[in-house]
Amino acid sequence: MSTLPRLLKTAIFGALVLASLPGWAEPQLELTRAINTAIKNDPWLRQSAQMQAALLDESVAEGALPDPRLTIGAANLPMDTFDTGQEPMTQATIGFTQRIPRGDSRRLARAKKSQMADVQPFRREHRRAQVRETVTHLWLDLWRSQKSIRLIEENRGLFEQLADVAEAGYTSATTGSRQQDIIRASLELTRLEDRLTALTSQRASSRESLGEWIGPAQAQLAVSAEMPGELLSKLPGGGVHTTADALLRHPSIRATDERIDVQAIDVDLARQAYKPEWSVFAQYGYRDRAPNGQDRADLVSVGIGFDLPIFTGNRQDRKLNASAARLEAVKTERVLQVRSLQARARAALARIERLDERIGLYQQTLLPQMEEQASAALTAYNNDDGDFAEAVRARIDQLNADIELVQIQAERARHLASFRYLTADSSDIPSSSPTHEQD
């Protein structure tokens, strides 16, 4: 073999070595940091805490008696003279009325608002779980694009070297290169550039989507090169069997449980409408002196009043039936939620198991074989014993397999993040302290 092919071969392997060297250290966006930033900056959580505080204040107000009613007037005033001393029944009155709500409705109304406030901590925990899943998916989209771009850029130098080899061999007629080898090398470089453009566009889009949660400045940072350990972990033993129990502690289910309690109180409130509403009143009447100067006694009136819920068919009965129907509707909603979560969790588990098999196949068998094939084809070509197209095709296949493994790993991590969202546990959440959960 002449000196030129040996030098070109050395250059190719040198490009491979240089491509494998790590780049300069730069600030990186870790997944945990992105999730914590997104949760900290989520205005929805603050809104929920404010809503809980409002409901707790309203619960106190609902338990209080209605404001008393004060009336001031003139009674039995003569229309002919408007003289307050003309008639003995004319009087200036001041009255006081206090309404007493039906049955136990005040306590139930207060309990209802308090129970509604207890929904909010579980809704916030559900929101945090959703944010973790969403940000993890967006982070993985960015990681997948970045990793694929890095793989292509690491291999672009080799394809450029192959193009130079083909062109130099064709020019010198020392390696048996043909014109179609030059065209093939140029074509593959163009395809690599096209893939880089598409992946760069995907990376930019992923950064914009992630920037909605963590801010545009942090989203511009490169994500860590390696997959976080928490996304590579294995699933706990007995996955599907433990899922059903975990689902009952899911924050969305716990929130629905609280809503069921709220609706049960609403049914009790509807039953209070069958009881009378009471009121007590007192009135003082001042009478002026008679025209002859005789004193007249002032008058005091006291009494109680109540309504008569007799005709209940079109009012109380309907409202009670409606409240009971809403209670059953919420219970049905809970059943549907559990079914949906369980089906999605089982699907995520099955998908993770299949992806684990594919990852093992790629890492243990497929990638080593493709690397061996690419090395053999490249060596054969450099020794004038192989076809240029075959060497390029083998290298392209190896690059595609590397990128496909990145896609599979990212997909597996996405399903694991979704499974963790579906099995989120909210059993230790306090019920009535909105200020503690804003951090």
Structural commentary:
Helix content is 66%, strand content 9%. It contains ten helices and six strands, in the order αβααββαααβααββαα. The protein has helices spanning 3-19, 31-40, 43-62, 105-172, 179-214, 216-219, 239-247, 251-272, 316-382, 388-422, and strands at residues 28-29, 69-75, 91-100, 222-223, 278-286, 299-306. Strands 2-3-5-6 form a four-stranded antiparallel β-sheet, with no helix packed on it. The longest helix has 68 residues, at 105-172. The protein starts with a helix and ends in a 17-residue tail after the last helix.
SS-derived structural category: alpha+beta
Integer average pLDDT: 83
User: What is the straight-line distance between the termini?
Assistant: 71 Å
Describe the strand arrangement of the main beta sheet, using strand numbers: 2-3-5-6
* Strand composition percent: 5-15%
What's the structural blueprint in terms of helices and strands?
Elements: H1 3-19, E1 28-29, H2 31-40, H3 43-62, E2 69-75, E3 91-100, H4 105-172, H5 179-214, H6 216-219, E4 222-223, H7 239-247, H8 251-272, E5 278-286, E6 299-306, H9 316-382, H10 388-422
Parallel strand pairs: 1-4
Antiparallel strand pairs: 2-3, 3-5, 5-6
Helix pairs in contact: 1-4, 2-4, 3-4, 4-5, 4-8, 4-10, 5-10, 7-9, 8-9, 9-10
Concise account of the structure shown:
This protein is α+β, with helices and mostly antiparallel strands and 439 residues long.
